[in-house]
Design a protein that fits this description.
Helix content is 22%, strand content 36%. By secondary structure, it is α+β, with helices and mostly antiparallel strands. A 4-stranded antiparallel β-sheet has the order 2-5-1-6. The chain has a two-stranded antiparallel ribbon with strand order 3-4. It is flat.
Length: 129
C-alpha cells in the first residue's frame, strides 16, 4: 500500500504518470474478425500518435504465463497461467503522462476496447519516486 504522501492527488509535478490496464475476455478477443482486428490496430496506432505514451504493450496468451505465489513464512511457489481462474485477463497496457487522472481517464476512454462490453479499463496513478 503506498504511503499517503505518494498519492496522485497530492502530487505537485505538472505531468503525472498513469498506467492504463486493458482487461477483457481472451476468448472474445480471439473471436474478432479481420476487420475488427484492423480497427483495433488502427485505434491503438492513433492513441500512440496522440502523444504522451511512455510505454505500451500487448500481452501474449495467458496460457503462457507463470504466477509466483507468496506464502507467509514459507517458500513461494509457481503455477501455470494467470493468477486467477477468470475469463477476464490483462490483455495490454499503456503508461502515459497526463496532467491529472481526469485527463488520463478521458484519454483511456478513447480506446477501441471501450466499445466491447466484456472489457474494463483500469486507470491507475503511478507512484512518483
Amino acid at each position: 500500500m503506498p504511503r499517503r504522501d505518494h498519492l496522485a492527488s497530492e502530487r505537485t509535478t505538472p505531468m503525472a504518470r498513469f498506467l492504463i490496464l486493458i482487461h477483457g475476455d481472451d476468448e472474445k478477443w480471439g473471436e474478432r474478425t479481420d476487420e475488427q482486428r484492423a480497427a483495433v490496430d488502427a485505434a491503438h496506432r492513433a492513441f500512440q500518435q496522440a502523444g504522451g505514451v511512455v510505454a505500451s504493450g500487448e500481452l501474449d496468451d495467458p496460457a503462457l504465463a507463470k504466477t509466483i505465489h507468496g506464502r507467509a513464512g514459507e517458500r513461494a511457489f509457481v503455477t501455470d497461467g494467470p493468477f486467477a481462474e477468470f475469463k477476464e485477463v490483462l490483455g495490454g497496457y499503456y503508461e502515459i503522462e497526463a496532467a491529472d487522472i481526469d485527463e488520463a481517464v478521458a484519454r483511456a476512454s478513447t480506446l477501441y476496447e471501450t466499445s466491447e462490453p466484456h472489457v474494463h479499463i483500469e486507470v491507475r496513478p503511478l507512484v512518483q519516486h
